[in-house]
Every structure is written in C-alpha cells, then in structure tokens.
Write a structure and sequence with these properties.
CATH architecture of the largest domain: Alpha Horseshoe
Distance between the termini: 51 Å
Largest sheet: none
Helix content: over 70%
CATH superfamily of the largest domain: Tetratricopeptide repeat domain
Number of domains: 2
Structural class: mainly alpha
Shape: elongated
Radius of gyration: 23 Å
CATH topology of the largest domain: Serine Threonine Protein Phosphatase 5, Tetratricopeptide repeat
Strand content: under 5%
Number of helices: 14
Number of strands: 0
C-alpha cells in the first residue's frame, strides 16, 4: 500500500507539472517579446488570449497592429483590442480608442475614440489621459476646451507621462486652462528635465530658464522643492 501511495503521489505531481501556469506563460511571452522572438510570444499568448486573458488579448492585438511576427492586420488587432476592452481592461480600452482615432481596423470615429479614451482615463491609465487632453486641446471631434485639456494633462502628468508634464508646464506658464503660475510651471519643467531624454531635457530647461528670471528666489526654492518631492501618482499612493 505504501508503494502504491508513493506511485499515486508521483503520478499526481507529474500531472500537475504538465499544467501550464497562465502567469508563467504570460511572463514567458513577455520575455520572448523583449528578445524580439515574436513566434514564441505568439505561441505563449494566443492560448491565453483565446481563453479570455485581457492582457494577452491586448498584446496579441499589438502584434497584429504593428505586424510583429504576423502579417499586419488592423481588423484582427481591433478584434483582440475589443475583447480586452469589453472586460474593462484599461490598455485594451485605450487601444480601441487609438484604432478609432486613426481609422485602422474600424471606421475613423473621433467620438468613439474619445469615449474609449475616457473609459481608460477614468481608470488612471496615463496614456489615455494624455490623448483625451490632446483631443480637448486641439478640438479633435469636440469643441476646444482648455480647462478640460489641462485637467487631463494634470492627471497624466501625475501618472508619469513626460509629454503631459511638459504640456502642463506650458499651460501654467501662459495660463491656458489653469491660472498662470510660474512656480507650478517651473516645477513641471524641472520634473521633465530630471527624467526625460536628452532632447526633452534640453527643451524643458530652456523653457524653465526662459522665465525663471521673473521669479523671486523664494519662489524658485519653493518650485525646486515641489519638483524634488514629486513622485508618480501610483508610487506616491504606495501601489
């Protein structure tokens, strides 16, 4: 009997070892994608996507959208994006918005693009917040509204979107959609300079140094402290 129990335990463990862990499979796909081994990424993600994994559905959509390891197929990409979006997955919602804005895989429809961006933005997805701000700023499919643009630039900036931080700094500099505030403008340009690429850093410092002479030493100290203390929203929330 003891030998039989040992045999049954061995068979059970062997059987469990054959069951793939979705998280491990997904991560293996991520690692393969990072190495540009798109065939392996597809192999890992497709079964997960077909079983309803929203992250895998989104990633599969990206591969079809960009033509990575597969022939570029915007309609197929849109299908996978929609599947993820219908589950309330923020990145899927954002990508559906991009598809509608660009008219790829579906008809171009800025109203629908804004709707999907807004769904993702309300979940705190910074890229969607940035795109929503741009739509309000430029009046893309909607009336220009600088206050709403500034609101979403701020949300995206707090979430770590460097482009939004730069644009928010510009808004504070000229008082567009927000009260003019050189301290806040200085802060955001400094935040950009501390994390952007070299070109972005130079542009941010050029903008900041262009008006800093109009600030008092106390204001500059205040702005630099605000910039030093700033952390991305999720990090500062302990998430």
């Amino acid at each position: 009997m003891k030998a039989l129990r040992i045999l049954l335990l061995f068979v059970s463990l062997a059987w469990l070892g054959c069951i793939s862990d979705p998280q491990l499979e997904f991560q293996a796909g991520m690692e393969a994608f990072g190495k540009k081994d798109y065939a392996t990424a597809l192999e890992k993600w497709r079964p997960l996507a077909e079983s309803g994994n929203a992250s895998a559905q989104t990633n599969l959509g990206v591969m079809y959208y960009e033509g990575l390891g597969v022939n570029r197929d915007y309609a197929e990409a849109f299908k996978w994006y929609q599947m993820a979006a219908m589950q309330g997955y923020a990145e899927g919602e954002y990508n559906v918005g991009v598809a509608f804005a660009q008219g790829r895989g579906t008809n171009q429809d800025f109203r629908e693009a804004r709707r999907w961006y807004e769904l993702a933005a309300k979940q705190g997805y910074a890229p969607a917040q940035l795109m929503l701000a741009e739509m309000y700023y430029r009046g893309t499919g909607i009336a220009v509204d600088y206050e709403k643009a500034a609101k979403w630039y701020r949300e995206a900036a707090e979430g770590g979107e460097v482009a939004a931080q730069y644009l928010l700094g510009s808004a504070y500099l000229i008082g567009q959609g927000v009260p003019r505030d050189l301290v806040q403008s200085y802060k955001w340009f400094t935040v950009v300079a501390d994390q952007g690429d070299e070109k972005t850093r130079r542009n941010a410092l050029s903008m900041r140094d262009g008006f800093s002479a109009r600030m008092s030493p106390q204001e500059i100290v205040q702005a630099e402290k605000l910039a030093k203390d700033w952390k991305p929203k999720n990090e500062s929330d302990g998430q």
